[in-house]
Amino acid sequence: MSRLETLLVSLLIACVCSAADLQAQAPMRSDPQKLLAFAHHLREKGDLYRAEGEYMAFLILFPQHPRAAEAWFFLGRTRQSQNNAEGALEAFVQAARTRDPFWSGEAAVGLGETLLNSGKPVEAARSLEAVARDPAWGGYSSRALWLAAKAWLEARDWQRARAVLLEIRPGDPEAHEAALIAQRIEAEAPWLPRKDAWVAGGLSALLPGAGHLYAGRPWEALTSFLLNLAFLAGSVWSAKEGCLVSSGIISFLELSWYLGGIESAAEAARTYNRQQEERWLRELGQMPISVTDPSFSGQGKLSLGGLHWRF
Q1: What pLDDT does 193 receive?
Q2: What pLDDT, on a 0 to 100 scale, did the predictor assign at position 28?
Q3: Sorting pLDDT into bands at 50, 70 and 90, what band is 288?
Q4: Rounded to an integer, what distance in angstroms lies between the CA atom of residue 224 and that of residue 113?
Q5: Three-class SS of residue 30?
Q6: Strand pairing class (290-295; 298-303)
């Protein structure tokens, strides 16, 4: 058989296989239950790109189907897994609007999670608080309040986080742990070690390096002091030697370094504060507290320590 004949046979086989695939897929595309099950199957296998396509096909072909809210929710989760925050938000909003007894509540919580993971903790907290206070989503109140508290902590609003934790109903299993964390926030947050950025900048203005020393950066303090001293000495020596141009250039460099040192000291103080807050939040997040998190595959667990603080 010649190479041309071999190529023609291969093309014919490919066409036949493609036609067979289309015939095999056509009945499934006409069956919403099979189509949605196939999308779930792809998602569980980790084939997220194809799963997204199947969820979208379901929603285009059967927009009014009773399981549309479920499809919207898992479309959001699939996009979330692909780091497509904007697409996930769109899908979760659509699922929440259906007011489905189960999936709309899941989607409303997913919306808050996506906002939180997108670096919008204030928006996330407000969205999750709205979920917790909506009577239609009463079953999601505790989980939404936990996430809202985490969002307020990420936003460094300790008092709002404490207030949200205390909203968890006394009858809920997590109420006792929530009260303990709220107590820790009240007792510890106001006393976290802090450095004032204005004080750090002012000290460096008075004596280069002093602000860095105040902010806990001794080596940077020594470097700043010695370099400012060297620039100043070089400027004075050049002026005494009659090299006024050189003295002017060195003085300009010294002024730039001096002003930069003031800003650097202030930033060092702000960095110190962030590090202390992060350390405290990590310790706070290690408390073994859990809430039920229903998922497609069964019952999972969320813990305050397992929420993986993102700072």
Answers
A1: 92
A2: 60
A3: very low
A4: 44
A5: coil
A6: antiparallel
Dihedral of CA atoms 216, 217, 218, 222 in degrees, nearest 10, equals -140
For residue 288, the SS3 value is coil
- Alpha-carbon distances of 301 from 14, 289, 306, 307, rounded to whole Å: 47, 10, 9, 10
Q: What is the mean pLDDT of residues 43-50?
A: 93
pLDDT, tens only, 226-239: 888 887 777 777 77
CA 159 from chain center: how many Å? 21
Residue type, 151: A
Nearest to 132 by CA among 80, 184, 85, 174: 174
Tell me how far apart the terminal alpha carbons of the chain are, to the nearest angstrom: 66
Tell me the two tokens of residue 141: 């109140």
What are the tokens at 154? 């990420």
Phi, psi of 301 (to 5 degrees): -135, 140
DSSP state string for 65-99: -TTHHHHHHHHHHHHHHTT-HHHHHHHHHHHHHTT
- What pLDDT does 179 receive? 87
Number of C-beta neighbours around residue 83 at 10 A:
10
Tell me the C-alpha distance between 152 and 160, whole Å: 6
Beta bridge partners of residue 115, listed in sequence order: none
Candidates 63, 120, 48, 51; CA nearest to 94 is: 63
Question: For residue 286, what pLDDT is reported?
Answer: 63
**Chain centroid to CA 281:** 15
